[in-house]
Amino acid sequence: MSHSLLPSPPQYSYSSTATKTLRIHTTALNRTNLTNSTLQTTRAMGEGTLNPITSTLVHPRWSLRGMTALVTGMRLWRNCWAWVLTVHTCSRNEAELDGCLKGWTGMGFRVTGCVCDVSSRVERERLMDNVCDVFDGKLNILINNVGTNIRKPVVDFTEEDFSTLMATNFESVFHTSQLAYPLLKTSGSGSIVFVSSVSGFVSLKSMSVQELPKVLGNKEYLEEVFARTPLRRLGDPEEVSSLVAFLCLPASSYITGQIICVDGGMSVNGFYPRHD
């Protein structure tokens, strides 16, 4: 999954059609306390809370209202659930980040951001310091959504290439989750969602270095891929963000440690088209 941050995501993103998700709750006791608090809030407010978008009542179990989230990567959070969340995000590109933040705050989103290259340990620590300050030491949701790729044959990889991949795709996720743990615990209930590509779930012999340009640039090949996908199309980033939002809801609190693919059924058949 690309980690580039764009003001307006493309209509379709093939690499976004599959995610690996993991939900972690800090402690069972804290989850119980949150549930009791939610029930008390429900009784006090009646049937539920008012959805600011649809003007309908929403039960607290189906609402993210009042929660805080750190999203390392901007595409996923651009869904209606962002209206009731307070989000902090990051980018390596300051000009791009500033442009996005200006547009999103103008649309009414509660979002802040800072410049950060998550492949750097020092910058990850600085990022978490910013999050701690912005959210007063409490964080409800961490979404690890940054990833990168180097598309060239494996035999041509340099030591620097390999280090870049590992620092961005593996080390940053582990360390960011580790840094976020105290803030998640303080919030009373924390959720962590990891987003990855389908190649983490099924074997793709060379997708990571050669196949993606071939798929997106070859109409005939793309049509064959559609034929292997039950829904006959590529996925939209918002279809991924919808699952991410669901996994962060109190209503999904019993889902943890699971891998869920959002790929139109492609992983059931396997990625590569038939060649008769």
UniProtKB/TrEMBL annotation:
Keyword list, A-Z: NADP, Oxidoreductase
GO MF annotations in UniProt: oxidoreductase activity
Gene3D superfamilies: NAD(P)-binding Rossmann-like Domain
Signal peptide: none
Family per similarity comment: Belongs to the short-chain dehydrogenases/reductases (SDR) family. SDR65C subfamily.
Protein name as catalogued: Tropinone reductase-like, chloroplastic
Organism lineage string: Eukaryota, Viridiplantae, Streptophyta, Embryophyta, Tracheophyta
This protein's encoding gene: VvCHDh000122_9
